[in-house]
């Protein structure tokens, strides 16, 4: 695939209270075309779009579309990198870590409560730590090596980091904050390309351009193993799934 291929997007309403945008690089129909896959709701522990209604809507989506299985994961531990980058005082850093763990535990408890109401839909809660531990070491090492070298991947990752960190953070400190993505990407890419059933990634927001660049093969030189997995896969299907009110469509 060339540099200029853009994800194809299909906008759909789901019930009266949700909207979704399905994106893929390899041809598109509608979300039901991907029902043979598993659906995976990724929720950042700091994403303000997280709500019981969102999880409930995801459960309804899994049941109505008939996905093979559904999973929910709270993205929490990658934020440890940001805490370490932003806190020089170890006491403050430890307090932030404890706070992060508390919020994550509360959100997981909320998810379990919602999932119990949808027990017939075969949806499981899996922790980020569990997923991380299950990823092959070579995948994590390949991402880390590509980031440490003067690669296009490193430049793109730092550019993305610049967009989301405070302006007061100097450029020379960006690599510290970029460790969030260095920790997150191996797990996401492993789920996309190593899961035997293939997955549909569901998230309340747009996908990272970095991920579409992997799918396009733009990092083939610095991420050869991951690029080979992507080329051999059925291709990424990504769903931006939001409540209508939060999408500005109420």
Which residue ranges are poorly predicted, with pLDDT under 50 across at least 5 consecutive positions? none
* Sheet of most strands: 7 strands, mixed
Structural class: alpha/beta
How much helicity do the residues have? 40-55%
Specify the number of helices: 9
What portion of the residues fall into strands of 2 or more residues? 15-25%
H/E element order? EEEHEHHEHHHHEHHE
Number of strands: 7
Radius of gyration: 18 Å
Write out the strand line-up for the largest beta sheet, numbering strands in chain order: 1-2-7-6-3-4-5
* Overall shape: globular
Please give a quick description of this structure.
By secondary structure, this protein is α/β, with parallel strands linked by helices. The protein has helices at 52-65, 79-86, 90-116, 128-134, 137-148, 152-164, 174-194, 209-216, 224-232; strands at residues 8-14, 18-24, 38-44, 70-75, 123-125, 199-203, 237-243.
Could you explain how this protein is built, in words?
The protein is globular, with a radius of gyration of 18 Å. The termini are far apart. By secondary structure, the chain is α/β, with parallel strands linked by helices. Helices cover 48% and strands 17% of the residues. The longest helix has 27 residues, at 90-116. Helix 1 links the parallel strand 3 and strand 4 (70-75). 32% of the residues are buried. The protein has helices spanning 52-65, 79-86, 90-116, 128-134, 137-148, 152-164, 174-194, 209-216, 224-232; strands at residues 8-14, 18-24, 38-44, 70-75, 123-125, 199-203, 237-243. The protein has a seven-stranded mixed beta sheet, sandwiched between helices. Helix 6 (152-164) packs across helix 7.
